[in-house]
Amino acid sequence: MKPVWVVDDDRSIRWVLEKALGREGIAFGSFASAHEALDALAQGAPQVLVSDIRMPGASGIELLRAMKQKHPAVPVIIMTAYSDLDSAVAAFHGGAYEYLPKPFDVDQAVALIRRALEESLRVEAVLEPAAASPEILGQAPAMQEVFRAIGRLSQSSATVLITGESGTGKELVAHALHRHGARAAKPFVAINTAAMPRDLLESELFGHERGAFTGAQQLRRGRFEQAEGGTLFLDEIGDMPAELQTRLLRVLSDGSFYRVGGHQPIRANVRVIAATNQDLEARVRESLFREDLYHRLNVIRLRLPSLRERRDDIPLLARHFLARSARGLEVEPKRLSDAAMAYLSAQDLPGNVRQLENICHWLTVMSPSQVIEVGDFPPELREGRASPSSEWLAALAREADRRLAEGETNIMENLSKSFEKTLITKALAHTAGRRIEAAGLLGIGRNTITRKIGELGIGDETPTDPDE
């Protein structure tokens, strides 16, 4: 956790807060002027900023504006004398978290700072700088289509609905749409609507006024306000409760909302990106999802392929995840043997990219050697060992993808010839060149195998049939 910054030209105020924070075990930095704090800001932001409003040189309001411009997620507490109350209230329009009137009770000041710390850490979990977002990897044709769609949508603020199985990377794509768009300098805020209890979700999305309900001791800004000017990502939108579907529809339709317990409409300058792994059309038919909201969200749909549809990307992704896990654990990166890579690429992996990432992290921690073999995989992956049929079908699918991508024609005929030639050659090798026995194993007649040997040019590659 980063330190709390205290900015005040009054040395006694700084001393009191320094001692109080020190007793609570809260790290702090102390500055005698806004200019000192602004200079320190070049090296990194605090977790919470506590600043006096009136100081020689730059004021606390100027410091507040600079902080909100560079680090909008940092809560700012403004200290003020009662005579400056109007200025403190005006500070809220600049994004202040709370004001602390002087003289203040030290215990109350520490309690307020603790609340601001909790808010900062909570928001930090959902506000991520775009540059820190993981890179999306993929060379398969299906992923190239996704990349092209991101490029086309980069300068648009249209609502996007991302669909795909669990673990396909829907939030990564939402990050990419934000990072490459016109709102990249503003916040990206994410919320999983299925993970939040329904009685808290409304307050999380729209915020609440002080006293709106039992326990609402202060005003709280919801995710729509946190994402002002930026992007709000609503994950698992298909599980949103019906009453909140109505409120969300109103925001998308009118561009404004009310905090819980509020009476003044608040404009929402936010781009909404929603995601689901469910069939929303089916949920509409079952009256579990509002049809009008579905059409509002489904302005532009972006479908993400499962890992089964892009098996060629598994080696690329596996190497990336192994390297990233090694960096995080500060160990030498491990690598998959050819056999292990082929085995991994043949798995269905219903958890898709997320499951693959977890497997790679497990291997980094648990594999006994630098070169990972099939026997090193987690037990559940070995117990669900891919059948031989699934392995060769996966290989066939990869070969078909490659030929299609290269624009080859007559693919069916060419692959069929290769298939027949391989089977007959292997059967003849197994029977030491005895054609009648090989034909019986393959389930074809002697005349058929003789004709195929001639057509496919196998005759010179096999032993003379002792039956002839």
Q: Unreliable segments (pLDDT under 50, ≥5 consecutive)?
A: 125-134, 386-390, 460-464
Q: Specify the CATH architecture of the largest domain.
A: 3-Layer(aba) Sandwich
Say what the CATH topology of the largest domain is: Rossmann fold
Please report which band the strand proportion falls in: under 5%, 5-15%, 15-25%, 25-35%, 35-45% or over 45%.
5-15%
| Straight-line distance between termini | 83 Å
The biggest beta sheet reads:
5 strands, parallel
Oligomer: single chain
CATH top level of the largest domain is: Alpha Beta
Helix proportion of residues, in percent? 40-55%
Question: Strand order across the biggest sheet?
Answer: 2-1-3-4-5
* Whole-number count of domains: 4
- Number of separate helices: 20
Mean pLDDT across residues = 83
Question: Rg from C-alpha positions?
Answer: 31 Å
Can you describe this structure in just a few lines?
With 468 residues, this protein is an alpha/beta fold.
What do these coordinates show?
- By secondary structure, the protein is an alpha/beta fold.
- It has four domains: 4-124, 3-Layer(aba) Sandwich (Rossmann fold); 130-303, 3-Layer(aba) Sandwich (Rossmann fold), CATH 3.40.50.300; 307-389, Orthogonal Bundle (Helicase, Ruva Protein, domain 3), CATH 1.10.8; 409-468, Orthogonal Bundle (Arc Repressor Mutant, subunit A), CATH 1.10.10.
- Helices cover 47% and strands 12% of the residues.
- The protein is built from 20 helices and 14 strands.
- It has helices spanning 11-23, 34-41, 60-70, 85-93, 106-124, 141-153, 170-179, 198-206, 223-226, 242-254, 280-285, 291-297, 314-329, 338-345, 352-366, 379-383, 388-405, 411-430, 435-442, 446-455; strands spanning 4-7, 28-31, 48-52, 76-81, 98-102, 160-163, 188-192, 231-235, 256-257, 266-267, 271-276, 300-303, 335-336, 371-372.
- Helix 2 packs parallel to helix 3 and helix 19 (435-442) packs across helix 20 (446-455).
- The longest helix is centred in the last third of the chain and has 20 residues, at 411-430.
- The N and C termini lie far apart (83 Å).
- Residues 125-134, 386-390 and 460-464 have low confidence and may be disordered.
